[in-house]
Specification:
Blueprint (H helix, E strand, L loop, with lengths): L5 E3 L9 E6 L5 E7 L8 E8 L10 H10 L3 E6 L16 H13 L4 E10 L1 H12 L4 E7 L24 H4 L10 E3 L10 H11 L4 H6 L22 E8 L3 H12 L2 H6 E9 L14 H22 L12 E3 L8 E3 L8
Parallel strand pairs: 4-5, 4-6, 6-7, 7-9, 9-10, 10-11
Antiparallel strand pairs: 1-8, 2-3, 3-5, 11-12
Helix pairs in contact: 1-9, 2-3
Length: about 350
Amino acid sequence: MSIDYERIDAAPIPPAARSFRVRMRDGVHLATDVYLPEGTDAPGPTILIRLPYDKAGDYAFIPLVAEYMTGRGYRVVAQDVRGKFRSEGQALLFVNEADDGYDTIEWVSRQSWSDGAVAMWGDSYYGYTQWAAAASAHPALKAIAPRVTGTRLGEFPTAEPGSRRRDVEMAIILLYPLTHFHSQETYLWEPDWSERPYVRDLEEFQREVGTRSASFDLWYPHPVILPRFRDGSPFDAPAVPVLNTIGSWDNCAPWSWHDHETIARRPAWRQNEFLLLESIDHENYPFGYRGGERTLEETREMLPAYLDPALEFFDVFVRGAGAPESIPRVRWNLAGTEGYRHSAVWPPAGA
């Protein structure tokens, strides 16, 4: 049996980026790109993006994101997380992101182009890295904007007692450490979903590439639970303003909603949470979309809808350019309609 897979290596660093190797507390260096607004090295607020999907690659299109954000006056720092692409260390899910987030924020806050204020933005795993950084309680972290993610990302979702929702085994959980977190590179492939047990293909893939995934071996067949947040849950740390984006058709929505429910029980965090509910799936495709993968031009066209809510949020809570009351407490898009509806609470009154 042969497994067909595509190996994705690091893309070339964009000309607009300044590249650094940032040292973590244990001596590991993380590959980091800095984008500054055109024509200035003056200090200003920074948006940090820590991701495992290649900071220069097409999948997360961070160079386009950075171009848009610097056009709004922000400095942007994009970093390959530990063990991924150009960064040193072992590719290991979840457990290093709090300390590495703290150390990176510390580095950013000491740069000549930084005014000491840092925000974080991103989807999925690079939404999780924001929560991990919040758990580290670095004082320079002023706001976060996690999208389609959660603090318990990768855990099996559980039903609330008395609810009609059943436990769902998300097979993608076991595939993820063999694609995006197998090693420094990304491997794109799929097992034969018609075969049982499908773990047979997972083992065959590792034999073919000649290395094993440490994250997979920690999860299967006997899970070894390593602490994600050494200093405690993000919700035990001082609250920072959070724009929490949840997708109606996102496979990670159960974890997003779990965080929202936890926040509701923490007064300081509840005061600082703003909800943005989008009619999207995990890849940000909207309800009713029937096309294929986005072209470069389509990606550019989606940037305002994708980024403006976070930038407007950061304008208020990082730059201080506006009143907190100007940001709706809850915004949601009803599938098949244009724009957002607003509410002071979720669910809205009368629902």
